[in-house]
Predict the 3D structure of the following.
Amino acid sequence: MVKYDEGFKQKVVDAYLAGEGGYASLATRFGIRSKTNIRKWVSAFQQFGKQGLASKKANANYPVQFKLDVLNYKLRTGDSFEDVARKFGITEPPMILGWLRKWQNEGIEKKIALIERLYTPIRGGVLK
């Protein structure tokens, strides 16, 4: 998979926002294999500014409780993955879908063990 640096992404996004072409024509012009990349960059830029174009840390880790909070919000509200990502400052909405699928595919025993581990009192009742 080709990685594009932040400056290149910004140049492409700026061209799109200036009306210099659509996703397909800009993909051809800049030698990008998929117009979907440009759509994602434009969306990330519009939602998060320059930070949305920054390269992500490999294997970014979110705390389990954060993931549970995000999933609880998603399931409770029915908001789109994009809206939930924006609310929680997550620049990759598909990551939330991955968490949801993993949660749904885990057996009930693993879910119970996870919840017990998260809420086991330590040091006089302080939660982990």
About this structure: Strands lie at 121-122, 126-127. Residues 64-127 form one domain.
